[in-house]
Amino acid sequence: MGDGKSPPGSPKENPDNNLDANPLTKDDSSLETIVRKFQDTSLKRHKFWETQPVGQFKDAGDTSVPEGPIEPPAPLSEVKQEPYNLPSPYEWTTCDMDSEGTCTEVYNLLKNNYVEDDESMFRFNYSKEFLRWALHPPGYYKSWHIGVRAKASKKLVAFITGIPARIRVRDVVVRMAEINFLCVHKKLRSKRLAPVMIKEVTRRVHLENIWQAAYTAGVVLPTPITTCQYWHRSLNPKKLIDVGFSRLGARMTMSRTMKLYKLPDSPATPGFRKMELRDVPAVTRLLRDYLSQFVVAPDFDENDVEHWLLPHENVVDSYLVESPKTHEITDFCSFYTLPSSILGNQTYSTLKAAYSYYNVSSKTPLLQLMNDALIVAKQKDFDVFNALDVMQNECFLKELKFGPGDGQLHYYLYNYRTRHALKPSELGLVLL
Amino acid sequence: MGDWQQLVQSIVLGLIFSFLVAKLISIVLSFKEDNLSITRSAPKPEIPDDPNPGLAHETDSVVAEHGSVRNDSVPGSDVETDDDDDWEGVECTELDEIFSASTAFVAAAAADRLSEKVSSDAQLRLYGLYKIATEGPCTASQPSALKVTARAKWQAWQKLGAMPPEEAMQKYIDIVSELYPSWLDGSSLKSRGGEGDALSKDARGPMGPVFSTFVYEEESGNELKMDAIHAFAREGEVDNLLKCIESGISVNLRDSEGRTPLHWAVDRGHLKNTELLVSRNADVNAKDNDGQTPLHYAVVCEREAIAEYLVKESAATDIKDNDGNSPSDLCEANWPWMQVAGKQID
């Protein structure tokens, strides 16, 4: 028991000392001590996911593990009825996005604290209209729009959401939650709120008898179903260069760059027009048929198509090709509007980006269809058109002068194992 | 009597023993509590979670020295109206957090023997920076030359002299980021707007979308040959450009694509350079290999002020390039003086 006299926290008696084989020399013992708890948290970040029903790295490539749910559904009575505990200065709140006040709070939290690029030059600035659209699909649950407030000030300091979706994995349509908009205020990032928020949204999803989820992340967690790459197509190259979104090589002229990315004034495909309400049944048929070729894709019905794909000013744009002769709807393309704040630029404050959403080509070559999408995006004053290499996108990216981005997006399923990882081209799902 | 003494002695020893056990248990418990951040209650004013009071104190003083400066210097890119009282005691400074996380990463990497890939030179640099950041300048005496490792470490520390701890932390983080570019992946640490070159991967959250920008690709196959005068014109370096001209280099010198310095200055939008070049008799109607004049460039690049200036300096608006387009053909913005000037020349 002589150890009891050594200073508290010394390596010997530290209960979490998992570094018995630590090769560090005696000189480094102080370093060893100061870092232990951080090490602990860095291990925990996988510890957290290792406790969750997600595909584990150790099982990767093991084809004997069956495809499907990892854990069977539990009886609802076994789902924890009380919310998880938060650190005591904070409390849970349900965010009613129909309330203008709450919607504004959520908007501001995300605007100031959500995802940035690697160099903190840009931060996503989802509009309020976009957030309402993204969070109110058919059959949404208000209780899945979860906020955390500081008890004292009532200030909204964190947010996470789920929305219900039917997602098909091969032949099986699974009711899932799409988890998104996890955001913790910058000043609370060291509080490790994220794991408890993920657990809480999971609990609330379970309460609706839903046991699977889909989500994306920029980081590798156990275990991606696929890893996609972002591509960018300059529409306003001068602004993109001025704000640092892209760079002009020392031996390249702006004049040539402008010429390179110039687009015609109007779409080329005859019968190319904006989608309307009356097109919903035809677009649904077209889209269902098209998405059936992918391993993982949403199972859209007409209500979903009406919600997700009918044009919505400054949120989502959809165009289709109606054959001038037969009036049949043969092709479809869409993109959503996601502006970003430009941090610290004198001239510009907002980057207006279009993100490729669902595109279907049956008669018009996809390349031509997407070129028309670029043209209308340019007309609508977007600065850049972004696309992932999902579905058949790869066939047009290079040809239409998309350049590779530095962002990789990993797709995940919660409590659902796929036999092997997919190629991006086998994925038919776009999360916002 | 002897028995009685023995009894007292054993009671006293027993008390001491149980005190020590109780103490140990309480240390263990408090340590655990500190680490279970989810269940942790009130925020603490000191650096959260540090299991070692001694070190916490040391680190605290580092933070105290620099904390105020750092807080002031956090750029106000978000105009936040929130009352900072909300956060009192919650924050530790960001650099400190990231430094701590990076030291943790290094220790973990060492434990995983990843460090075998790291040169001993880099390890020594890290050691020196770590010591400066946590202990300040080296005051220990030089170890004997026989203790090779100890001496190398001492030198690594000593040679940094009186480097400020903050700088040492930043450099430490830079080196770690260079050695393990992905070390911050998945970390809960995040950068605050505008502060973090070294924090690179940091802005990516645990879940959700990704903000991607263009990967910068070095131009390959671009055989352009250009001179210093073109580069100065391109970069807007007025003084150097002037020196070039005064040293007798032709103001209309062509690069391998037939561009003059004026083309480059206009292309990059440097009005001052443009004015300087024109005042030194640069040819305003010089054509590059595509038949384009500086005014073509100004129009294509939508540089209105420069285009207006060039037209005023009698640049022709009707010279056709090799594609048959004149500047006024290419002008989409319908600048009135562009059209009027065109007509005048007609």
From TrEMBL, chain A:
Q: Which UniProt keywords apply?
A: Acyltransferase, Transferase
Q: Does the keyword Transferase apply?
A: yes
Its taxonomic path starts at: Eukaryota, Viridiplantae, Streptophyta, Embryophyta, Tracheophyta
| Entry coiled-coil feature ranges | none
Its family remark reads:
Belongs to the NMT family.
**Signal peptide start-end:** none
Q: Where is this region: Disordered?
A: 1-31, 55-83
Specify the species.
Carpinus fangiana
The Glycylpeptide N-tetradecanoyltransferase N-terminal domain covers which part of the protein? 69-228
Entries under PANTHER family matching the protein: GLYCYLPEPTIDE N-TETRADECANOYLTRANSFERASE 1-RELATED, N-MYRISTOYL TRANSFERASE
Q: What is its EC number?
A: 2.3.1.97
Q: What sort of enzyme, by top EC class, is this?
A: transferase
Described function:
Adds a myristoyl group to the N-terminal glycine residue of certain cellular proteins.
Annotated Pfam families? NMT (PF01233), NMT_C (PF02799)
GO molecular function annotation: glycylpeptide N-tetradecanoyltransferase activity
InterPro entries hit by this protein: Acyl_CoA_acyltransferase (IPR016181), NMT (IPR000903), NMT_C (IPR022677), NMT_CS (IPR022678), NMT_N (IPR022676)
Instruction: State the protein's name.
Output: Glycylpeptide N-tetradecanoyltransferase
The source's superkingdom equals Eukaryota
UniProtKB/TrEMBL annotation, chain B:
Instruction: Report TM segments.
Output: 6-31
The chain positions of domain ACB read: 95-185
Lineage top rank: taxon: Eukaryota
- Give start and end residues of every ANK repeat: 257-289, 290-322
Keywords from UniProt, A to Z, are: ANK repeat, Lipid-binding, Membrane, Repeat, Transmembrane, Transmembrane helix
- Pfam families xref list: ACBP (PF00887), Ank_2 (PF12796)
Q: Does the keyword Transit peptide apply?
A: no
Family of the protein in this entry: Belongs to the ACBP family.
Please report the name of this protein according to its UniProt entry.
Answer: ACB domain-containing protein
Source organism (scientific name): Carpinus fangiana
